[in-house]
Target: Four helix bundle protein
Amino acid sequence: MPESVIQKKSFQFALEIIYLYSEMQEQREYVLSKQLLRSGTSIGANVEEASGGQSRKDFLAKMYIAYKEARETKYWLRLIQHSQIVKVDVNNQLTYVNELIRILSSIVKTTEESMN
Model:
């Protein structure tokens, strides 16, 4: 079965987060970078789990977790941007995570509606 748009985008985003994490580690930032790495890569992991879900309810639960992880990732990116604790540009990642949030929100909403 071919990958869905959200699978592709969340995987690509995870790679972007890994690169950003590495850049932050080089600048000796270890706390925020670790939080960002965890939440940013968790989005795609939950999307993958949802794709193999045993039921619609399971699918919905995993997609909702992915949505919440995307929201958390946005929070960490905003903290990094506004604290200026490291010299990195996170504008592209913020744009990307906002797109993921919109897609995941739509998936969750559509799935919930189809279950009622």
